[in-house]
Structures are given as structure tokens and as C-alpha cells.
Amino acid sequence: MEMEKEATKSKSAKWWVIGILTVLLIFLVVLFFTGGEKIKRFAEQNLPQPEGQVSEEAESKTVTLFLLSASDDLLHKEKRQIISGPSVEDEAGRVLSELIRGSEENMISPLPQRTQVRQVYVTKEGIAYADFSRALVEDFAYGSSAELSAVYAIVNSLAYNFKAIKKVVILVEGGEKDTLGGHVDLSRPLSPNYRLVAE
After folding, report:
1. Which of 76, 100, 101, 133 could cross-link with 116 by S-S, CB 3.0 to 4.6 Å?
2. Do 150 and 135 touch, CB atoms closer than 8 A?
3. Type and span of the H or E element at 63
């Protein structure tokens, strides 16, 4: 009789352990398929993405860059995907970073490759202050046409893609510059110039 009771207790304990393990397994599976996705989404939204790579989870938008062609001195349009939001300033900074990164269609960036976008700020009046690292002026020997292309690649790429941006001020290391290379006056906000763009 005692042996039967022990056997019954042993079976009950065994099924109790199996039940606990089953519940734990179900919990871990649910955590993996829900919590794991949340962790993945958090990482994709908060960790830096490699240049030019758009996260699958993040929404993207199509923008137009203004780049140079080897065949003439005009600016040419090239479409590019960037991550959307959360603000015009963030998107504008991504547009300028893509402009620096260069073409995916055998065109040429008019900006030095070592240039970095430090910050973009847009006022209520529609003036965008685009702040670049000093490489913008240190890494390039600007002739008049090259300087014109560099300046209006920046101005046109911002004004064309964002209705909130009407004019652009180009800054270097947070300060105003009279010019990048002695040819284009940067002492005032610049409106886009689409006459420099190829048809």
C-alpha cells in the first residue's frame, strides 16, 4: 500500500514538473516571437545603420539628389531612398549625407567625400541652416564652376525635397563663411537655382 502511494506521488510530481516545463516552454516561445521582435525593432531604430542602407522595419521615402555628370557642368537628378522622420531636420541631414556619399548611377558628388553633416536646423521662416565639417573647404580646390555646383547641389537638394525649406545657409563648423572658395557669396540665405539643372 505504501509502495502504491509512493508510486502515485512520484507520478504526480513527474506530471507536475512536466506541466511547469511546458508552461515555461510556451512562455519562452511567446517571448521569442514577440519580445524578440521588439528588441530587434528597437535595435534597428536606435542603432546606426550603415550608410545607404534602409532598415526593413523603418519607413522610407524617395528623395532627389543633385549630382554632377562627367559630360557637362550641370547638375543632374538622381533618386534615392532615405529613412523617413522623425523631423524635417533629420531627413534633410540624411539627404545631405547621401549627397556626400555620391552617385549610384555613375554620376559625381560635387562635395568632398570626407565631409560630414554636423547638423541641419530649419526656421519657421523656411531657412535651413546646414552645418558641415571643415572638410567641405579643406579637401577641395574650388574653381568657379565646381564651387557653384557644390553650393547649389546642397541648396537644390534641400529645397527640392522639402516644402518647409525655401532658402539655405551653408555653415562650416557652426560658423558662417563668406564663400567656400572665393566665387559664390554665402553671406546670405540662398534660394534654389534650377537653371543649373540638366533638362
Report:
1. 133
2. no
3. strand 60-68
